[in-house]
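Revision sheet: structure tokens.
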Amino acid sequence: MKDDSAIKRCLWATQYDIYLRYHDEEWGIPCYNAQQLFTMLNLELMQAGLSWRLILEKRSTLEKKFTSFDPKKLAKFSEEKIEKLMQDPSIIRNRAKINAVIQNAKQFLVLEKQGIDFVELVWSVVNGTPIINQWKKHEEIPTKTKEADALTQLLKKHGFKFLGPTIIYSFMQAVGLVNDHLVDCFRHVTK
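Predicted:
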């Protein structure tokens, strides 16, 4: 592994090795792929009340057990399948979260049927353009914003579950609707 100690990163990214790749290659990069957006939304809801490190450690298992978060497959999950998941120690065994993932898949398909593009819906709260923040310290970064409130309400209006402005703001950071990399981080971008 090459020595990249001179590279400036957001402080949180240096806490664990598993954070480095996520920070460097994914977090804050604008995503315009419906499947990826849907996956990240569900990973964020799975994270509620837990550490992001745990989700990253379980990410490949979660994606496997939840059929790569394919809405068409998730929407067909039976009560028997849910019970099987509830017995599986390799995932987050929270019935409300599991049910929300399945419900969100069904609502994703409803949007499709109505001709509503999930990507456009999500990006509408920032008018299709990422918000580029200019934070100098981690403590300046909010946990929710008016845009996160708006997206929360929009998704809830369309039947999505287990969402609040804090979960949604974290989602917005993850998929690049906002760029909250600190100004001295190599992943920070300018307008």
